[in-house]
Amino acid sequence: MDFKATMQITETITLNPDEITYDFIRASGPGGQKVNKTSSAVQLRFDVGASPSLPEAVRQRLIRLAGRRMTTKQVLVIEAKRFRSQDDNRRDATERLIQLIRKAIRIPVRRRKTKPSKASVERRLNQKRQRSQIKRQRRVRSETEDI
Fold it and tell me: Which domain holds residue 88?
């Protein structure tokens, strides 16, 4: 993956690589003696609020989807530290950004409210009556109830 070329998200949306910044940080985990000397983890930052590449509707859905990864200044932060290599982590972070944007592009289908059918309501109430009858028969009858 070429990090200096424009990224084609869809036919209509392309990201300019200048909109994305990469910070390299030290990662915990495997690496042996070298782990404390190298910064192999990647922190990708993408300013969603100021990006001219995103349509407004996609921007709003992306902000909602990002959740805790979004800062108060509408900057999306993705951390990648799965691999030992800086290049692999950068590729991983970029792919995760692209997947998140593609997910935000899809317009969610709105749920249609439905009512239960009369037959299903009747079945449910009949089952409740039967269950109640069974429980009533299990009760221990006291002497006062017989009078």
Answer: 7-105
Q: Give the helix, strand, coil percentages of the chain, each rounded to 5.
A: 45, 15, 40
Q: Does any domain span residue 29?
A: yes
With a CB cutoff of 8 Å and minimum separation 6, the contacts of 116 are: 124
Cβ-based neighbour number of residue 115 at 10 Å: 7
Check residue 134 and give its pLDDT. 94
For the chain, the domain total comes to 1
Write the CATH number for 41: 3.30.160.20
pLDDT value of residue 142: 64
Contact indicator for 58, 65 with CB cutoff of 8 Å:
no
- For residue 45, the cross-strand partners are 21, 77
Is the pTM above the cut of 0.85? no
Q: Give domain status of residue 136, yes or no.
A: no
Q: What is the pLDDT of residues 28-52, one digit of tens each?
A: 766 666 666 778 888 899 988 888 8
- Structure confidence at residue 125 (pLDDT): 97
Whether 13 contacts 54, CB under 8 Å: yes
Q: Is residue 25 part of a domain?
A: yes
